[in-house]
Amino acid sequence: xxxxxxxxxxxxxxxxxxxxxxxxxxxxxxxxxxxxxxxxxxxxxxxxxxxxxxxxxxxxxxxxxxxxxxxxxxxxxxxxxxxxxxxxxxxxxxxxxxxxxxxxxxxxxxxxxxxxxxxxxxxxxxxxxxxxxxxxxxxxxxxxxxxxxxxxxxxxxxxxxxxxxxxxxxxxxxxxxxxxxxxxxxxxxxxxxxxxxxxxxxxxxxxxxxxxxxxxxxxxxxxxxxxxxxxxxxxxxxxxxxxxxxxxxxxxxxxxxxxxxxxxx
Length: 265
What we know:
Radius of gyration: 19 Å
Helix content: 25-40%
Number of domains: 2
CATH architecture of the largest domain: 3-Layer(aba) Sandwich
Strand order of the largest sheet: 6-7-8-3-9-10
CATH superfamily of the largest domain: P-loop containing nucleotide triphosphate hydrolases
Oligomer: single chain
């Protein structure tokens, strides 16, 4: 599938001919090569591929955490030159401060915002309600389960009202049941808030369940190998023949043609 065939018109995010080379022990290691991708409107896309193919590297470039690369990344028609509150990011580890309460952790995202205390209180309460943690506002991270802590991280990322949310293996450390539950929560948030999202994952089933498009990256140097449009109606049934067919298709693309599992790592 050619990039021109994916979407036409203005894209909220435009990645054009992006490449990335790391220097290690005086050796150049090419992580990404000629990445072209567009994200139009409030879309949720997933990026999958083998470990080391540059998925997380690409996400960091979009977030502005690494500015040393070739090509151009534009968001809202402006070149990305560094981090911005317009682009929120959630990592595999929740990265909550253990000495702060849940509400204090969420408030950190807006502590410098030119807002009244009352308005900040309102935003924190709204975001915690959105992830169903309003009753845990005064709890500390050590008192939460892994899934709850990750939901706090999502609430914190949403507190700054980002216009794009980037998620780097956000549920990888959770057990299967918690992972499925929080996938449902993320999907509800995306449908309610209409925030464009890009999720990097090793879990092919997760990618199909959540996204409208799955971007399959080739082994290093990472390139866009193919893009699979997931046109299944929502809510999606993970056990349906159509769902399983998409899973087999993507596993074939990744190189696991026998569909031995849901993880392409």
